[in-house]
Amino acid sequence: PRSLEEGVRISAQEAYVPEGVFVPEWVRLSVEAVAFAAREDRRVDQTAGVSQRLAISLLEVVAASAERRALLYGGRPVARPLDLYQGFPAITGKLELEYEGELQGAERVAREIVQRAFGMVLPRYRLKTEPIVAHFEAGNLLTLPEGEVQGALEALARVPGLLEAARAVAGEDAPEVLLSAGEFVLEGLVGRRKLSRGEASYQAAERPRSYGN
Length: 213
Known about the structure:
The protein is mainly α. The chain has eleven helices and two strands. α1 packs across α3 (52-73), α2 (25-40) crosses α3 (52-73) and α9 crosses α11.
């Protein structure tokens, strides 16, 4: 595909998404951006190519992860950015790595490609993110529980500007959709190196270390 939108259309036709599962636009675009980011990554063997099957397989994993969460915790099955992190096997199974990528490990390469993908999609939404970044630069952390939608939305609301940005992305107030959009804003900021993401929480971006004077 020549564009993310074209990729979204192809994957929508080819991927199996369980009935009732909602995969929002920003998640679908990010899934396609993973394939685009992989095609630009020097750690990936470009002679082997990165096929559209990667995005199709990843979309299926994302949808299945959303369905599993709804069965476990109740609520509406809406795909969230965190579901892309469940898809590392779908990503690494479709990539041939160069020597450098092999040294770093497939999971690390996949994680960085996913984060770059979110960073590629975020600017499409033209959001005001400075207050969000400032909140984390003041030393605050944010942890989003996987299953507890109301608690996660309350956590988002404590970050200045984050719920507003989520509403601008989502265009609606349905709790699961709003949470997915808010998480996308955070992941996009990680992908653009404005924030960093630990195993459990979002935090300020790590500053480049300066050596010597």
